Amino acid sequence: MTSNGQHTGRPLRASDPRALGGYRIVSRLGRGGMGTVYLAEDASDRLVAVKLIHPDLAEDETFRRRFAREVESARRVARFSTAGVIDARLDEEPLFIVSEYVPGPNLHEAVRRSGPMSGGTLDSLAMGVAAALTAIHGSGVVHRDLKPANVLLSPVGPKVIDFGIARALDGSDGAATRSSQLIGTPSYMAPELILGEQPTAAADVFAWGCLVAFAGTGAAPFDAPTVPAVLHNISSAEPRLEGLDPGLHDLVSAALAKDPAARPTSPQLLARLTGQEEPAPSEVDRTIVRGWDPPGGSPVAGAPPESAPVPGHRPADREAPPPSDARLQPPAPAAPPAPAAPPTPAGAHGQRPHGGAPGGHGQAAPPPYPAPGHPSPPYGQPAFGPPSGPGAPLPPAEPRKRGRAIVIGAAAVAAVLAVGTGVVALMNGGRPVPDSVPLYETDFNVDQEWQNDGYSPGESDGYWPEKRGLLLRLEPDDETSRGIPAPVEPPEGMPDGVVVSATGYAVEGPGEAVFGVRCWDSENDGTRTQYEALLRHDGLRAEIRRMNEDQGDRTLAQTTEVDGFSPYPLYDEEARTDDYDPQRPYRFDAEAVPTNTVTLSCHHRAAEDGAGERMELSMWVNGEHVLEVVDEDPLPDPPEDEDDRRRVGIVTRTGSGPEPVAVLYTHFGVAEITEES
Questions:
Q1: What DSSP character marks residue 77?
Q2: How far is residue 172's CA from residue 677's CA, in Å, rounded to a whole number?
Q3: Which of 82, 149, 259, 506 is the most exposed, fewest CB within 10 Å of its CB?
Q4: Cα 146 vs. chain centroid, distance in angstroms?
């Protein structure tokens, strides 16, 4: 569980429990595949983390048996650089676990925010995690999923969490099996696990080597853009350790041996690091503390760190933002590709450059993109099974190349049509995207858990790891539109003014089909309402729409002048590459196809100084300003205690015919507007 010791997560919802067993629930800290995590107080007012297991898992008898066994094993582990399990309810519903509350961010977030570790801090990290593995293995437990997100950085040293929990999911029925076909995070998975062998302590040692390399260089040693490429590297490539502290290089290299028998054991790791055959735990603790420089300024639970700027933004104080040119803009083109890396299996996108961050070891710049398989979980994690669901901010990363360079600018608004009373179309020319500070951003390099299912051809849409995007596919006979809310819940609620942006590639469907973004998505008394910015697949029209289930939908403004649009190959032969086949539209190079970014600003203004309540809306396509309109009869704003209020997200709508529609979303962001104008 992570925290900065001052912030205590998000307010409880009406559906959240107020007490579990003898623990008083204080706030929500996050949600993951196994359940929801709460900050709680025990009878002595000590803060603890309580994880409430999802009912679907609790009903699975296989899961319950395995889970009870692994919890009991975890409770036997000595608290030697580990965050221990304190209590659990295993024999009656609802199932929950109580674990130690650790103040501090996880290793993944700390490296992404502040850059690689070095010196005594890196040595203390390596020693602390090795000490934790020694305690875990000494109790007969195998961690099975050691990764940066499962190492919390407390003021006195690293704390390992989540030991053994993956085994509870292994072999159970239902959702557990479907979501855990690969037990372990790919970038930290030992080669023998890829071959289907049983996890042993040696696999944890391999993960230790990967983790220390990540901490010291900013990149896992077998990183690649896709999961198949990562698995290929782990199985047959040498680890990339350029930039790693020379004092750790040989030990990390030994831990990464392909043969499990050739790796040192966890006690041998600890002996090498301390220089003692059997170091006493107290001496190890003192050594860790002496060299440890804890990360400062842990962010609010579930919120993005202010010191980690998202591309296109400038950090700003929320209460008194300084003047800046920071704007939520479409992803910029990436730098030219790096020299070719070792060969990858068919379907991989190639290898990413490795080693230290730009500028050498110890620099703060993060690597080009996070490794597949360890998404950034929300701040505030339990010591037994961290969440990785809504609110998880994506750390800064260079966006992927997506074909044509995106035009940034403010074109004049032309051919605008405003419809209906209470609507004012503003014809004063183009304007830039408002200044803003990020609330959430993802380029879908990893699954951000927008929906439960992954993409499966012919069965379901969802996250498509090979294309590193979220695919929405609609069959008009089943549904003509679908939207997915973004998994973001700012601790203070969604603000009055936001900028929402999504980048998409039209895979399938008629030219009249549309895709875009939503804002002010709310449900009040059973009625859903929202505003949408929509772009036709053929680029012939952009529009801002007001959606109301009771009163009907209407277009507030539209234009046929979308000058910055990049044609998709499905509709424009000139946009096709030699290997593109319109009869097989799902076969494409996700790094080369053109994409378009739809941006919508929504700014709710309260009635003041003689002016009535209103909603100010503007739309951009690839940075070109295309529409601006004011709704003088804005959609309702539900009370603050409503769960479904002011949500943002993506949306896809079909055309008038029977053709299926599919859009691959490759980027999404939402930011709070800071300017006053």
A1: S
A2: 55
A3: 259
A4: 18
What is the structure's pLDDT at 472?
A: 94
> How many Cβ atoms sit within 10 Å of the Cβ of residue 2?
30
For residue 153, what are its two tokens?
């950085």
Tell me the Ramachandran region of residue 312: left when phi exceeds 0, alpha when psi lies from -120 to 50, beta otherwise: left
CATH number at residue 527: 2.60.120.560
Give φ, ψ of 27 to 5 degrees: -165, 170
Can you give the residue range of the structural domain that contains 159? 107-164+179-291
Full-model pTM: 0.46
Q: Helices 246-255 & 201-217, crossing angle to 10 degrees?
A: 150
d(C-alpha 344, C-alpha 625), whole Å: 41
Q: Which bin fits 343, alpha (ψ -120 to 50), beta or left (φ > 0)?
A: beta
Residues 6+ apart with CB under 8 A from 509: 537, 570, 654, 655, 659, 660, 661, 662, 663
Please, are residues 672 and 406 in contact by the beta-carbon 8 Å criterion? no
Ranges of residues in the chain with a pLDDT under 70 are 1-9, 30-33, 70, 73-84, 162-185, 225, 295-430, 452, 640-643, 675-677
Give phi and psi for 410, each to the nearest 5.
-130, 90
Distance CA 229, CA 45 (A): 48
pLDDT at 77: 56
Geometric angle at alpha carbon 327, from 326 and 329, rounded to 5°? 135
Secondary structure percentages of the chain, helix, strand, coil, to 5: 20, 25, 55
Which of 145, 245, 538, 637 is the catalytic position?
145
DSSP string, 373-415: T---PPS---SSS----TT-PPPP-PPPP-SSPPP-S-PPP-S
pLDDT at 81: 55
The reply to whether 513 falls in a domain is yes
Q: Number of folded domains in the chain? A: 2
Last residue of a domain, one of 291, 325, 356: 291
**85-89 and 47-53 beta bridge pairing:** unpaired
Q: What's the distance, CA 81 to chain centroid? A: 27
**Rama region for 156: left / alpha / beta (φ>0; ψ in -120 to 50; rest):** alpha
| Rounded Cα–Cα distance for residues 35 and 278 (Å) | 39
The torsion angles phi and psi of 478, rounded to 5 degrees, stand at: -100, -45
Neighbours of 282 (CB within 10 A): 8
* Contact call for residues 52 and 20 (beta carbons, < 8 A): yes
Q: Please tell me the distance from the alpha carbon of residue 104 to that of residue 386, in angstroms, as a whole number.
A: 14
Binding-site positions for ATP: 51
Classify burial at 347, counting beta carbons within 10 Å of its beta carbon; exposed 0-12, middle 13-18, buried 19 or more. exposed
Residues in the chain: 677
Note the pLDDT of residue 142: 87
Our measurement of the distance from residue 311's CA atom to the centroid of its chain's CA atoms, rounded to an integer in Å, reads 15
Local structure of residue 327 (DSSP, 8 states): B
| Contact between residue 143 and residue 187 where contact means Cβ atoms under 8 Å apart | no
The two tokens of residue 618 are 């503007």
Residue 55 has a pLDDT of 78
Residue 478 annotated in active site:
no
Q: Which residue matches tokens 């669901």? A: 389
Residue closest to 450 by CA, chosen among 198, 148, 652: 652
